[in-house]
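Task 17 of the worksheet. Students: predict the tertiary structure of the chain below and write it out as structure tokens. Keep your answer in the requested format; marks are given for formatting as well as content.
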Amino acid sequence: MIRRLLQPDAELLDDPSPGRIARIAGLTALALAAYGFTTGFWRSPQMGVYVAIKMPLLVACTLGCNGMLNGLLGLLLGGLGFRQSLLALLSAFAVSALILGSLSPVTLMLALDAPPPDSEYAASAHSGYLLFHVLLIAVAGIAGTLSLHRILRERCASTSVASLTMLAWLAGNGILGMQFSWILRPFFGTPRLTVQFLREDPMNGSFLEAVWHALNRFTGGNIHLALIALVPLAFLVAVPICRVLFPRSQPVTP
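Model answer:
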């Protein structure tokens, strides 16, 4: 099953049965729990357990909302059916989870090697830690979703429908994932705040605002350096998307 997820073909969506969905969901939850524990472990082992629970919950919330929206979109565009869209999105999350889960030994070493939360460098360490994991999750999420583009080209009525569906998946997963991650915070554990499962003010602020503050702190309050740092990050995210959605035409050999 892992090999079929990492190397998907058109037959992946032929069996959107509850049993198949449950097996993929279980594998996704285990991989995300392993990665989530290493993510929260920097703050404390208790936070690691909390994040191991919340990572699968975050994906479940995102999948529930985005699966419904893109299931309706698939029916309107004449592409995938509702259950096929749900299975496709779940498979994309499973690929992302496998990427993150495979990196959990690395992220655990990072948590052990970073300045501890009670050190004088805790604030800057937290900012760098947050930015690194946000970038890692974004890259894994985009890679997981783009892995299904070839299936969309085969299943959808046209290439434009496949590309539109892929963009809807990326936008929905990104926007909903950011919002739900903010509501379900903390995931990294701010050093000056107590360890808790959820914050008392879940709707106060936004995910992008928190990332900007972290980038600003990490660059020592230099707003120009923070803006410059966003350019390669945006390039890193945009290039693989453009390469998959707009591939170069192969030259025709005589």
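Marker's comment: Confidence is low (pLDDT under 50) at residues 250-254. Residues 46 and 246 are 45 Å apart (CA to CA).
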